[in-house]
């Protein structure tokens, strides 16, 4: 049988195995509702803290409601912080030998990482729904219609998908759950060195350039634009083409880290 005739069968096999492993991850979460609830409520706590504790001291560029300015940044920050959960799940499976058992089964090699990515994306979508509801409860609104709002949500999930692959790859490289602290050291500066809370123009020149071209900044600026919420503005290329960059950055990260993750998984025993 030729390789061309085998390709559809291999694809169906890979999709079926991916669905099985996605279901495995979702079943684990169903058995640990407390852990899931903590993960969903932590971003809500951040919204309440920033919106009510610090909101009175913050000024919105050009005027407007601070919470409408804040929430798109918080949505994107939640997508970034989720990379730690992806890392911890894959690293734990690797450290406990679960990944090795998967490798001994007659299953598609890519299914382990794609199944994890799919499950994490479902979990992130649920978390984003909670965040949207929380935002609506504290006064946040979108103003450019349902289609633009759906596009903004799509950009947020696209960023999350790209960062899932980053987390999976790092987990397969480091293989130690306790090394999540290393990832936190990387994630927090990326999150706060952006336009989510502070205008890049207020930063030193070199740091402002990093903030403007930060993938998170592109998603935040694009979401503010699509939701019709106030933003920092600016006349730089990154500020004027935020939607394009909010698509380009995640696609680039996915194109790099998805194949690296699959390749690293296949070479775990070497």
TrEMBL record:
<feature type="transmembrane region" description="Helical">
    <location>
        <begin position="34"/>
        <end position="54"/>
    </location>
</feature>
<feature type="transmembrane region" description="Helical">
    <location>
        <begin position="237"/>
        <end position="260"/>
    </location>
</feature>
<dbReference type="InterPro" id="IPR047817">
    <property type="entry name" value="ABC2_TM_bact-type"/>
</dbReference>
<dbReference type="InterPro" id="IPR013525">
    <property type="entry name" value="ABC2_TM"/>
</dbReference>
<feature type="transmembrane region" description="Helical">
    <location>
        <begin position="146"/>
        <end position="168"/>
    </location>
</feature>
<dbReference type="Pfam" id="PF01061">
    <property type="entry name" value="ABC2_membrane"/>
</dbReference>
<keyword id="KW-0813">Transport</keyword>
<feature type="domain" description="ABC transmembrane type-2">
    <location>
        <begin position="34"/>
        <end position="268"/>
    </location>
</feature>
<feature type="transmembrane region" description="Helical">
    <location>
        <begin position="74"/>
        <end position="96"/>
    </location>
</feature>
<comment type="similarity">
    <text>Belongs to the ABC-2 integral membrane protein family.</text>
</comment>
<feature type="transmembrane region" description="Helical">
    <location>
        <begin position="117"/>
        <end position="140"/>
    </location>
</feature>
<keyword id="KW-1003">Cell membrane</keyword>
<keyword id="KW-1133">Transmembrane helix</keyword>
<dbReference type="GO" id="GO:0140359">
    <property type="term" value="F:ABC-type transporter activity"/>
</dbReference>
<feature type="transmembrane region" description="Helical">
    <location>
        <begin position="180"/>
        <end position="198"/>
    </location>
</feature>
<keyword id="KW-0472">Membrane</keyword>
<dbReference type="InterPro" id="IPR000412">
    <property type="entry name" value="ABC_2_transport"/>
</dbReference>
<dbReference type="GO" id="GO:0046677">
    <property type="term" value="P:response to antibiotic"/>
</dbReference>
<keyword id="KW-0812">Transmembrane</keyword>
<keyword id="KW-0046">Antibiotic resistance</keyword>
<dbReference type="GO" id="GO:0043190">
    <property type="term" value="C:ATP-binding cassette (ABC) transporter complex"/>
</dbReference>
<protein>
    <recommendedName>
        <fullName>Transport permease protein</fullName>
    </recommendedName>
</protein>
<dbReference type="InterPro" id="IPR051784">
    <property type="entry name" value="Nod_factor_ABC_transporter"/>
</dbReference>
């Amino acid at each position: 049988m030729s390789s061309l005739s085998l390709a559809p069968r291999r694809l169906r096999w890979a999709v079926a195995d991916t669905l099985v492993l996605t279901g495995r991850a979702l079943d684990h979460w169903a058995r640990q509702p407390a852990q899931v609830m903590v993960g969903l409520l932590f971003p809500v706590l951040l919204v309440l803290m920033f919106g009510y504790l610090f909101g009175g001291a913050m000024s919105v560029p050009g005027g407007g409601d601070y919470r409408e300015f804040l929430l798109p940044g918080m949505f994107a920050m939640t997508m970034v912080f989720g990379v730690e959960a992806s890392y911890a799940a894959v690293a734990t499976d690797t450290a406990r030998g679960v990944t090795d058992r998967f490798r001994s089964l007659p299953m598609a090699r890519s299914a382990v990482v794609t199944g994890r990515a799919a499950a994490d994306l479902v979990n992130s979508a649920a978390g984003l729904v909670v965040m949207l509801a929380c935002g609506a409860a504290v006064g946040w609104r979108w103003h450019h219609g349902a289609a633009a709002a759906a596009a903004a949500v799509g950009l947020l999930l696209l960023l999350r998908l790209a960062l899932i692959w980053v987390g999976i790859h790092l987990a397969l490289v480091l293989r130690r759950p306790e090394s999540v602290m290393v990832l936190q050291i990387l994630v927090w500066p990326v999150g706060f060195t952006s336009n989510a809370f502070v205008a890049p123009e207020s930063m030193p020149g070199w740091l402002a350039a990093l903030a403007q071209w930060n993938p998170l900044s592109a998603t935040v600026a694009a979401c503010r634009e699509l939701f019709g919420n106030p933003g920092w503005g600016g006349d730089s290329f990154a500020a004027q083409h935020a939607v394009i960059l909010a698509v380009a950055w995640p696609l680039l990260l996915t194109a790099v880290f998805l194949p690296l993750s699959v390749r690293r998984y296949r070479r775990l025993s070497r």
